[in-house]
Design brief:
The complex is a heterodimer of chains A (283) and B (297). Chain A is built from 15 helices and no strands. Chain A is mainly alpha-helical and 283 residues long. Chain B has 13 helices and two strands, in the order αββαααααααααααα. The chains are: A mainly alpha (283), B mainly alpha (297).
Amino acid sequence: MSSNRPKIFASPQEGLLTLLIIFVAVVAAFPMAWMVLSSLKTPQESMQTPPVWFPATPNLDAYVQVADVVSLGQSFLNSAVIAVITTAAILLTSLMAGYAFAKYTFRGRDALFAVLIAAMFLPPIVTLIPLYRITGYLGLNASLFGVIVPNLANAFGIFLMRQYIKGVPDDMIDAARVDGASEMRILFKVVAPSVMPAIAALTLFAFVYHWNSYLWPLTVLQGKTEQYPIVISLSRLLSYNRGAMNTGLVMAGATLAVLPPVVLFVFLQRFFVDSIVSSGVKG
Amino acid sequence: MLRTQNRSAIGMLAPATGLIGVFVLLPMALTVWLAFQDWSTQTGFETARFIGVDNFLAIFGPGSVGRDFKAALVNTAIYTVLSVLIIVPLSVALGLLVHQKIAPGGIVLRTVLFSTYMVPMIAVALVWSKLYSPTEGPINQMLGWIGIGAQTWLSSPKTALVSLVLLNVWQQVGYFTVLAVAGLTQIPPVLYEAARVDGASAWRQFHAITLPLLGNTLLFSAVIGVINAVQVFEPVALITQGGPVNSTNVLTYHIRRVGIERAQGGLGSAMAVTLMLALIVAITALFAVARSRENRT
């Protein structure tokens, strides 16, 4: 070990792997970086061939203009209402059902659980047509209720909660029962605090899924633009996207829509990864 | 005790099972029922008229309904097979890169890869439609730097579907990488130490230890990959509308167009049932392949 040159890497393998990691990360991050850069370009820069990578004078004009083209505030509010209410409801219904499946013995438990797991794997398009008629019967079409109500419970959430609640010691629950606590009280005061990682993971999963959801809101809202969540309002921007003139506008809108799920991901990703490990592979 | 448990169980289960029953299981059953009916989506279920297997004859028949559906079925199959064939091996390679302990940066790489999975598909589609642009897009520009000519990407029926597959791979591979890493962490390190003592090469270790012990993870990844791939909708609805020349008309897009926009609820339901049966066959086949491999080793 008497090299004269100062070594950056301990071995050739380390150097090679580091370069590979940097390369993959750059490729993976490139589309989102391009989106943000494009949102800062002038319309002229967006139209140039070959494309300009870095705007000469980055400006936020596109962010101001996009608010005039679509009702951005209203769309964000709609998305927030949909994502927050469904997430809260999914947490509650999944905790309750997950607790029952994990800690109660009752007739038909395993059969019922198997049916719910099957529902988890069903692609939404398979139920879309009759569901649209059912929400119609219930008077939910063309309103945010139609987006929200069918999504208040989620089979994956039940599955995840059951996996984690199984690990809560029975002694803790029995002790609370001896003290005369009601089952709901046990669920919230004993069980829920012991499965916070699962709650964090399900919060991220449900919020991201319903913030990003497109097929069902597009179908059930029946063209009611003032009820559109941001992802559908964005797609309306595309009629402005045809000419490259407005690329900046579209990219500004996309950047804004991406922020809430990605920011939440940065805070909660640790729990999400753990939940995938325990629900996916061991399950 | 058992009786009170039964009563509490009903209370705990009622909200979730009630909701899933009404909004998932009931529509599922109705889809199967409607597949055998002549029914317009704009009218109530009571207007449905039983017509036997006519819907299925139509969607597999020689008419325009059959032609469009069969093309969409084939497009979806190609899209799904290509997506899974690229995503699963790539996720193992990237998983090894995240999991290795020789060079730093694995966790950062995982975060970067996984974050793309959080991006709304609609934003992904918007951005990629620009990246793919033949003249103003940076992808053709970069290909030019290394001496490869401009590609048509989304604008030609020959390349449009593959372009959508690449977009899908970019968005989803991070999730599957996390699955692969989860599988890799379950392999006992002692096995590798023993192999090294025996003088096994890195490639031999990968082949004899990593791949076989990753079997369950690969099966799970393939199943989820198939289920995710058949749901492709946003990039088609947003960028290609099924074109050019129907080359990207996939089932989720086609079923919605027939069943909702054209209100042909019976025909759309028959298509949905066919999709579900195809999925069941595909997933059963994946399990059968996995089992036969297990038996051989």
